[in-house]
Each structure stands twice: as C-alpha cells, then as structure tokens.
Write a structure and sequence with these properties.
With 162 residues, this protein is mainly beta. Helices cover 10% and strands 38% of the residues. The protein is built from 3 helices and 10 strands; from the N terminus they run αββββαββββββα.
Length: 162
C-alpha cells in the first residue's frame, strides 16, 4: 500500500501544523496574573475567560469548568489584549466572578473583535509558578515555555489577515 493510501485511510492531512502562539504573563503590583494576548493591530478583545479541565462533564458540560470570565473591556490596555485574569478591573461586565484563588495552572481563552464581529480567539495554558524568581523589566512577559518576550514580540506572533 502506498503512503498516500495509508494517509487517506487514517484521515491524516499532510501539511503544516497549526502555528502555536505564546501568550505572555507576569504579575502586577497587586500580585494579579496579567496576560498579554497576541493580537492583530486592527483587532480588539471582546472578552476573556479562564478555565480548567474537569472530571466528567465539568460545570460547563464539555469537560471543563470556567473559573472566571469578563466581557466588554473598558480599559484601552484590556481592549489591546493585556488584562489581569480573575479581576473585573478593565471590563464592564464580569460574567463569572472568580470564587477561589487561582490554581497554579489554567487555560486563558479570548474572544476577539474584528471588523465589528466577535470570533473565537486563541487559548493557551498558563502556569503562574513559572514567574517565581523571574526578574522582568517593565513591558516584559514570560511565556509558558519560559521565554521572556516584550509586548511587541508577543503581538508579532498573531496570525493576522493580509
């Protein structure tokens, strides 16, 4: 059997894998985890949430439990993709307030606003303990892989229309 026949039978598609973008994160002066989301220059975020894997169906009914979510950014920084997770500051509506301290690992998901239309953005795992011992300059963020990036470097990863 040829390689193409095997690929056809297994349902595999040959081609480049989707490109993973790195979110950045850091602590603010109050100890909140601040996320820097990779965002195209003409986009804004419409909302953000954090969630964790759950046993069984989870509270969301899909194997996950949402711990916090907020919509309608009011602060320019939040509109541009930099926001504190678990904090209502910077958003008009906190649709699910954080009820317990943040776990040491969670997914961050963002809804983007492009040309007036909302669309699902990227999501990414964040481990706040990776910040321990990191000395970050203003405007620097750590990625899940431990790289230190500036806001411009994070945004440069965004997959934007041409």
């Amino acid at each position: 059997m040829s390689a193409s026949a095997v690929l056809a039978l297994t349902g595999c598609v040959v081609g480049p894998a989707p490109r993973q973008v790195d979110f950045g994160f850091r602590l603010d002066g109050s100890g909140n985890v601040v996320v820097a989301y990779p965002l195209c220059a003409t986009y804004e975020i419409a909302g953000a949430s954090i969630y964790v894997d759950a046993k069984g169906e989870g509270e969301d009914g899909d194997g996950f439990t949402t711990l916090w979510s907020a919509t309608d950014p009011t602060a320019e920084e939040a509109e541009r993709g930099v926001f504190a997770v678990g904090a209502a500051a910077g958003f008009r509506q906190e649709t699910r307030p954080l009820k317990a301290p943040l776990p040491d690992g969670f997914y961050v998901a963002v809804t983007e606003l492009a040309a007036g239309k909302e669309k699902n953005g990227q999501d990414h795992w964040v481990t706040p303990s990776r910040l321990k011992g990191k000395q970050l300059a203003p405007g620097e963020y750590v990625t899940e892989e431990g790289k230190v990036l500036t806001r411009d470097q994070i945004n440069a990863q965004a997959i934007c229309p041409k």
